[in-house]
Amino acid sequence: MSDHLTRALATADLKGIRRGIEKESLRALPSGNLALTPHPLALGSALTHPHITTDYSESQLELITGVHAGVEDCLDELRRVHQFTYHALANEGDERLWVSSMPCTLPTDETIPIGRYGRSNVGRSKSVYRMGLAQRYGRRMQTISGIHYNWSLPGVSSEEYFGLIRNFRRHSFLLLYLFGASPALCSSFVDGRKHELQLLNEGTYYMPHGTSLRMGRLGYQSDAQSSLAVSYNTLDSYAASLEEALTRPYPAYEKVGIRNPGGDYNQLSTSLLQIENEFYGTIRPKRVIEPGERPLHALRERGVEYVEVRCMDLDPFVDVGIAAQTMRFLDVFLLHCLFTDSPPDTPDEVLSLARNQHRVAERGREPGLMLECANGQCLGDRPMTEWAASLLAQCEPMAAALDRTHGGSAYAEALAAAKATLADPASTPSARVLDAMHKGYGDSHLNFIRHRSEQTRQSLRALPFGADLLAQAEAEARESLVQQATIEASDTLPFEEYRKQYLAPERMLLD
């Protein structure tokens, strides 16, 4: 271990690490079909509830924790939010949360309901943005679900966070291998689309060595966005890249237009990106925004506050979709990304990383798989397992430092588990999904996930959920509805004026 790394780990406030989780899940019927009902009123307002909202679709819940110093505390809150959600769903019918990242049986694209957030300007803009995503990418792609892991460490500068991000992008293939859990999907997702998947049985397609189809070419991908050359070398270069994409008209989207002949909105804008969140990535620099503030302005004004890890699949074998051991490994991995040298990225390396991501997503467990290594420190192809083993070995000081800080050996155990998974591809979540499908469900992805979703519903419903917790959650839901009504009553601007003002380029600049 270098003297620099020793000093960095010794002086870092590792007790100051904070994390939070955002977990997306479709609401599904017992049959495995997408639930087409509105967001349950008992869950409050999707616009203003701090812990329960919707992502893209009205049928896609997003459950959000607060910021936590402890891994178990974070998971406890996530579990309580799940329990209240299941309580509300049980009172309204027999819907359940779909426990796979790849969606349940989907209806025709235009039938998938877009999220609705009320009649306020901010609520309408959220729905119009989603209509724009439908126009640009189709609704099916947006029904993919994942877990976002938000992470921060005190005293880290924006420059250091961008170094972390560059290393994360280089090495996140390891997370796809270790935790990818979407090697198969329901045929309705690819109905009418070109793809390279193999037919496993009627209704199920897969990749034999796939790890995370969600992060492959069928997932959050866009030909338009592939033309973006976003640099993560500095906050200024990153912001400039996004600003251009947010202000430059894109011919294909200009043809769609902002409104249709009937006056309804097709999208928020005709630029390559409507808003900052449309830019897909495995990790994002983030900053909590003020009401009405543009995220890019917040980053420029106050710097990076935390990073959002976006490449984690839902784990169908875990009741809330992510295990404590997985979270601890992410802590170790992110410290490694932060405290190791991070040379500047180049356009060639960015393209190489995209190819590596697709290769591991679609073929990660393939024996002898080679990855491209082109960051100036190594050139040419390198065996994935060799590279991964080297990264895990380099993570040992981070795990040891975290265990010294917190006591015990939980972080060393998380790292040891990752090493064991690397050595035994059959133990990866993706391989376990395929094995369970084969042994008990006739190779049917739909039937396996239906069963796991029902098991998860029953296990979470069986956990104690006291009257005080229920009353508190119900009050929070009612309060969110009051807040939405207050926002709607206070609007004075016509929506078109609101849209123009919010999207004005100067709103992204420093004051």
Short recap of the structure:
The chain has 511 residues and is an alpha+beta fold.
Please provide a written account of the structure:
With 511 residues, the chain is α+β, with helices and mostly antiparallel strands. It has a single domain (3-495), classed as Creatine Kinase, Chain A, domain 2 (2-Layer Sandwich). The protein is built from 19 helices and 12 strands. Strands 1, 2, 3, 4, 5, 9 and 10 form a 7-stranded antiparallel beta sheet that branches. Strands 6-8-7 form a 3-stranded antiparallel beta sheet, with no helix packed on it. A two-stranded antiparallel ribbon has the order 11-12. It starts with a helix and ends in an 8-residue tail after the last helix.
Percent helix: 40-55%
Sheet bearing the most strands, described? 7 strands, antiparallel
Q: What is the CATH topology?
A: Creatine Kinase, Chain A, domain 2
Please report the number of helical segments: 19
Task: Give the tally of β-strands.
Answer: 12
Question: In terms of topology, how is this protein built?
Answer:
Elements: H1 3-11, E1 18-28, E2 52-54, E3 60-64, H2 71-92, E4 96-97, H3 121-137, H4 139-142, E5 147-152, H5 158-171, H6 173-179, E6 184-186, E7 198-201, E8 204-206, H7 223-226, H8 235-247, H9 251-256, E9 283-286, H10 295-302, E10 306-312, H11 324-339, H12 347-363, E11 370-374, E12 379-383, H13 384-394, H14 396-406, H15 410-423, H16 429-440, H17 445-462, H18 467-490, H19 495-503
Antiparallel strand pairs: 1-3, 1-4, 1-5, 2-3, 5-10, 6-8, 7-8, 9-10, 11-12
Helix pairs in contact: 5-11, 6-12, 11-14, 11-15, 13-15, 14-15
